[in-house]
Amino acid sequence: MLKSKPALYWEKKGEEMVMELFQYVYRAVPAYGKFLRSNGVDTGKVKSYKDFLQVPPVSKKNYLSRYSAQQVSLDGTLNRPLVYTSTSGSTGSPFYFHRSFELDKKTSAIHELFFLHGGYKKDEPALVVVCFGMGVWIGGLITYQAFRIMQENGYNLSIITPGINKQEIFKVLKSVAPAFKNVILVGYPPFIKDIVDQAPAEGIDWGKIKPRFIFAAESFTENFRDYVAKKAAVRNIFLDTLNIYGTAELGAMAFETPLCILLRRLCMENKKLFEHIFGDIRKTPTLAQYIPSFIAFDSDNGNILVTGSNTIPLIRYQLGDRGGVYTFKDLTKHFKEFSIDVKSEAKKAKIGAYLYQLPFVYIHERDDLSTNLYGLQIYPEPIREALLHKPICSYLTGKFVLETKFDEKQDQYFIINLELQNGQKVTSLIKKLTLDLIVKNLKQKNSEYAELNKFLGKRSLPKLSFWAAGDTQYFKPGVKQKWVKK
């Protein structure tokens, strides 16, 4: 269907899906009916997709946190088989999302598509190494389930789940992977890069393994893709790498296709084309396609909204991400304005057989106050609390700016820019104490960071940079403090 159905089919499919889901959810989910009534929505007047786009968005703040777990669930009950996963709790108490087997099957379809892009035969042995954290978070478990479903559907693949334990991953690559012609590694982009970089020192020859990679949880540049591909002897960046746009709420929502990678690379080569497609932004956006019979996106003033079915169904849900949405027809038309024929370019890149006329979504930054580190979110609150402790509160104002950066080796790290009190100078002892308190609080308040720190050690530690009071680069007097620099 993905290969044969035209763009118009998928546009209509998406509109039909959201209308049917909307009609079902406001009747079957107690909280959503209450939400609509409290916002003055007459459901009888929502008769078309155009009407649907006027329905007020829901969010964690105005919906999920306002009603009970039962009220936001289908039929107002938790009395069904569920799988729970959690957010990290970085902004307060963790939110526990649950899902059914149906969501796992949709995720499996995306993974199966990537599997087939590699030219793998269904009966040919393949090994999947899951390098996501295997705790209460969604990445590791749903990836395992996706490939487990493929096993049940007759694929001759094997799965191993070392999680984010590097030494276990290296043992797998040395002791298990050599027996397989086909190997897929799945994990957070910066973490996978660490594995790629450090593997040769562990006696691992990427030239013999020639792995393929599935990434998720954050965006990365095409330079990053090229770096990993070259170091790991990836055969084809279009067919052997994939980034998934997913959430704890709705699983794997959208995914890079070979065409997405090609189009993004074309945009990176032409600044005017880039701005025409994505707007005046500095960050390299993720460009992905999605299956409208599974999920739908729309955009409200640059805010990405998603509509999808789950045991907690969500209608026009605010993900906290910035970006936009294109139909296949609209996006290819924009490229045509720059004398670029998408189908011809796909043939040149030898990916013409993998051209799907699905709609696109692009995401260039989160709308919340957080920065990324190895796929998890680092929020200001735990750091604010750490800076209240004596004696460091006598040296620092408590203001700071978080940034995620990359060094010359393209290794990811995060830096905390801290403002000194007037006239204060920081000693080596205070530097160490500040770092210790920040890390301690992060581990206590952010369960994902604690897990990451356990396996990465020093690589997970923030770098501290101290600035004079009122420094205009980060702490300009008289303006609202920005806690995160994107």
Question: Which keywords apply here?
Answer:
globular; alpha/beta; 486 residues; 18 strands; Rossmann fold; six-stranded mixed beta sheet; GMP Synthetase, Chain A, domain 3; five-stranded antiparallel beta sheet; 18 helices
Description:
- There is one protein chain.
- This protein has 486 residues and is an alpha/beta fold.
- The protein has helices spanning 7-28, 30-38, 49-52, 60-64, 101-117, 138-152, 166-175, 189-198, 206-209, 222-231, 237-240, 258-268, 271-278, 328-336, 342-348, 380-386, 428-445, 447-456; strands at residues 83-86, 96-99, 126-130, 157-160, 182-187, 212-216, 241-247, 251-255, 286-289, 295-300, 303-308, 314-326, 360-366, 371-373, 376-378, 396-406, 412-420, 463-467.
- The protein is built from 18 helices and 18 strands.
- The two termini are 39 Å apart.
- The relative contact order is 0.11.
- The protein has two domains: 97-372, Response regulator (Rossmann fold, 3-Layer(aba) Sandwich), CATH 3.40.50; 373-467, GMP Synthetase, Chain A, domain 3.
- It has a six-stranded mixed sheet. Strands 9-13-12-11-10 form a five-stranded antiparallel sheet. The chain has a three-stranded mixed sheet with strand order 16-17-18, with no helix packed on it.
- Helix content is 37%, strand content 22%.
- It is globular, with a radius of gyration of 23 Å.
